[in-house]
Design goal:
Radius of gyration: 21 Å
Bound molecules: S-adenosyl-L-homocysteine
Number of domains: 2
Number of strands: 14
Number of helices: 11
CATH topology of the largest domain: TIM Barrel
């Protein structure tokens, strides 16, 4: 019989499991505590569970986490990138960044990606499969356990690793809700950010969920045609519809939407484009995060000079757009989405 993986199950699901075996409800809570509060993966260590239940669990279930295959640390010690593998051999990247405001992790939502963005390494080999809520949680717990050794924890999460989270909607939402549950990590929704390439219907859907997470939208171009060239998904969900959905999200949740804008030398970084971007976002509760492109060998785009980056930023700021330039971390460790995984796939 195939074992059922219970890592990633909610308390109601765990309760249903044990009551289905004729046991009282509180056994489900105890199981959740061992698994999520104490991070125990071995049923035999769950001392307050009756021996029979422990045996039953061993025979029917498994707590499937993730194993580390590779790790790269940046020279400044602030960023580590992990290649984690699940029991079916599928690997994903997870990144830990020690930020001034705490420990931030970047979680993958899919193994690979099929969005086809021209500047991105994650999509080069297509998509293998969606990740389950448990697999996203396993990435989180892998790093949280590591941090706990020095009395630290994961403080903020960006779902900004490989994959398009809004095409894996149910699993991603289940994961976010689990993060927030008191019996799990008890994180505030405000410490979670989801980044999307602009899956319009699901941006509207997310705005109705009543979970005040931060939304980032990968924009990367201020006009429709250029955006289609950079991001094929724009042919399905055109730029103006994406920005309109972002406006709706901001209005409904009262959370400021961040538009991510990769700066690519000579492609989308001139002042005329800064002007178009300003006009596009006029009247929205929005901010722009400029990201000098992390060049991916397979692609052939370059980052603009510091002067051009500064000029673009200055234009936005002078025209009342809230703007930040991404602090670049981990350039020396292949931190661009998907680069470490690709290296392993190619080897
Ligand atoms: N699919 C989602 C989340 C994954 S991509 C999305 O598109 O938002 C996460 C962010 O990394 C996006 O803003 C993406 O555009 C950016 N990114 C991808 N490749 C990059 C590169 N080579 N340099 C800089 N940023 C990159």
């Amino acid at each position: 019989m195939e074992l059922m993986n219970i890592f990633g199950q909610t308390l109601p699901e765990l309760t249903e499991l044990v009551t289905g075996w004729g046991l009282p409800k509180f056994r489900g809570k105890q199981l959740a505590e061992w698994m999520y509060k104490k991070s125990i993966t071995d049923f035999s260590q769950m001392q307050n569970l009756p021996k029979d239940l422990r045996q039953q669990l061993v025979q029917a279930c498994v707590i499937d986490r993730a194993a580390r295959v590779d790790q790269l640390n940046s020279v400044d010690g602030k960023t580590s990138k992990f290649l984690l593998e699940f029991s079916d051999g599928v690997g994903v990247e997870t990144v830990l960044m020690h930020q001034p405001y705490g420990n931030s992790i970047c979680v993958s939502s899919q193994a690979g990606c099929n969005m086809g963005c021209t500047f991105c390494a994650s999509t080069l080999h297509g998509m293998v499969r969606n990740l389950t809520a448990g697999e996203m949680l396993a990435q989180t717990y892998y790093i949280n356990d590591l941090l706990q050794k020095t009395g630290e924890k994961v403080d903020t999460i960006v779902i900004m690793g490989s994959g398009e989270p809004l095409t894996n909607y149910d699993n991603v939402l289940k994961y976010i809700r689990l993060l927030h549950e008191e019996y799990c990590l008890g994180m505030s929704y405000r410490s979670v950010t989801l980044s999307t390439s602009g899956i319009v219907p699901n941006i509207y859907r997310l705005a109705e969920e009543e979970i005040p997470i931060n939304l980032s939208i990968s924009l990367h171009a201020p006009e429709n045609e250029l955006r289609s060239e950079l991001m094929p998904i724009n042919r399905k969900y055109p730029m103006l519809d994406v920005v309109k959905a972002g406006g709706d999200y901001g209005a409904k949740t009262r959370r400021r939407v961040t538009y991510e804008y990769i700066l690519i030398d000579g492609v989308n970084d001139n002042i005329q484009q800064a002007k178009e971007l300003t006009e596009l976002l006029k009247g929205q509760l929005a901010s722009v995060n400029l990201i000098p492109i992390n060049p991916v060998a397979e692609r052939g785009w370059n980052r603009p000079s510091q002067e051009r980056i500064n000029a673009f930023e200055k234009y936005l700021a002078q025209h009342h757009v809230t703007v930040t330039v991404r602090r670049e971390m981990g350039n020396d460790i292949q931190a661009a989405c998907g680069q470490l995984r690709n290296k392993h796939l190619e080897e």
